Amino acid sequence: MVPTMINTHRSYKTISTPNAPSAIGPYSQAVVHNGLAFVSGCIPFDPQTMQCVDGGVDGVHAFNMDQGEEDKYFAAMGCLSTMYQMVTTADSRPDILAELEKVLLPVVAFTIQSETLDLYDDCFQLTDVLTYYQKSVSPAMWDIFTLMYKSFKSSGIDYLSEMIGTFDNCASYGTEMLRQHAEYRHMLIDIFHTAISSDQLVSSDRIAACQIAEVILLLLRGYVDDAVPGILTALLPFLDKSTESHLLRKWAALIVLESMYYNPTLSLSILESHGATQAFFATVLPMLTKCRRVHECKVAIVALLSLLAMDPQSVPAALRNGYPHLFGALLTQLKALPKLVAQRKELHKVFDEGLDDLDDDVNAALDEFDDDADVQEDDNDYLQLLAEEANRVRAQVHIADGDAPADDGIGSADDLEDDFDDDDLVYESPLESVPVYEPFRAVIRQLQTQQADLFQSLTASLNEQQQQDLQQVYDLQDSEDTGTSA
After folding, report:
1. Which neighbouring-strand residues pair with 15?
2. What CA–CA distance (Å, rounded) separates 470 from 464?
3. H or E stretch including 283?
4. What is the pLDDT of residue 363?
């Protein structure tokens, strides 16, 4: 028996023993304080080999069968929490993440198959971070994807908000698999239709459905032509001003624009078949002035470029008559994009500085803690510290973001602020590497050489400021500063 090592710091005792699996992150196996032992949860590693024990989930479940249901539930919660911490600690170690996945996915699979709904939130957090940090989707994770789909279609339908991160990551980092396997594409499309139409679900779930439609249209161009009519038909009712959520209305408009990028001819024919072309553009063009995210701005640009690159004779008359408005909106978005990119960089800077300051403040506060003070009081101090720092960073974000545009009736300023939040800091847009300024010059050259009369009418409709904007954006180059990564 190898002796247990005890490191003492103040009244805390840190336990380290080779008789239990060693910590694979920045934590201790156990800590003793004021007569209480706090033991970290652990997945079933053999202490000698640090390999998972035989039996997998079934072995673990059998080990806990003699405990009461409540004990098993809290034990499972503790294990899942520890697993999550281990994954986030190994975020830059793909080798460790791959090994952890082998251990964790059977746990997730068992949870889904046994319909242990109380643990869904924790399990899907695990699959979300695993796929996000690995930037890839293993065959075992695609099996989990299938189980999640089946669960969503039955007892887990209320957990789409928890599942959406994994679904999105599987599409984003497993695009080639989706292109090769129609069954996975059909699952994604079916999730969209179920979420957008089910009476059992609410606006937040319909927004999640729009997020799924977005990755389908942006990542699977040419692979889901048959799905586009159904997607647009399902979304058109949500463009009405009576839609219960302005954010859902905005998402619906964004997806229709993305369908224009996917295939403008197909999308316009669907709008025409519903008599919705003129109403859609009358609705969406004013909404574009609200674009406050790089991704939204680029969606507008690529959609408008796709429309202006079409043969005018194949464009519905109602839209052809509105070409000057489309051209003006395109110039506005092209001019705004570099500013939005600069604001996003500033937000990243403010956010990173806020985290650094928070770490310093937390460490200073912990140094001042009284070991004999009430634990609850310490927790309250810590939570207050977090709240104060969050408010400080939020205030700096608003300053960096600048003044909000004038209201156009689609939602209050508070609604738009809630919509914005910090999403642009973490969202990885499928359009991030898509250039826009060189394609813009190509469209201009095409109009000049093939549609000279149309080009002349478009430029003649511009006011003096727009003429200057045209020259300015024509000279811009695609780069990180203008929203195009390498």
Report:
1. 6, 30
2. 10
3. helix 277-287
4. 56
Range in 25-39, 218-232, 383-397 the model is least confident about: 383-397
* Other CB atoms within 10 A of residue 62 CB: 10
pTM: 0.75
The token pair at 286 is: 């004013």
One-letter identity of residue 98? A
Strand partners, 37: 32
Q: Which tokens belong to 374?
A: 């009430």
Residue 241's pLDDT is what?
Answer: 78
Residue-wise pLDDT tens digits, 214-261: 999 999 999 999 999 999 999 999 998 777 688 999 999 999 999 999
Which DSSP letter does residue 226 get? Answer: G
Q: Which residues contact 320 (CB under 8 A, 6 or more apart)?
A: 312
List the alpha helices (DSSP H) in 114-201: 120-134, 139-152, 160-173, 175-180, 182-197
232 to 5, 140, 214, 250, 259: CA distances (angstroms): 64, 33, 12, 14, 8
> Helices then strands (H, E): number in the chain?
22, 4
Residues in contact with 303: Cβ distance below 8 Å, sequence separation at least 6, in sequence order: 257, 258, 260, 261, 264
Tokens for 4? 């247990």
3-state secondary structure 300-321: HHHHHHHHHCCCHHHCCHHHHC
Which amino acid type is present at position 215? V
Q: Quick one: pLDDT band at residue 44, thresholds 50, 70, 90? A: low
With bands split at pLDDT 50, 70 and 90, how would you rate the model's confidence at 82? confident
The length of the chain is 486
Please give the Cα distance from 109 to 292 (Å, whole number): 39
Measured between alpha carbons, how far is 157 from 159 in angstroms, rounded to an integer?
Answer: 5
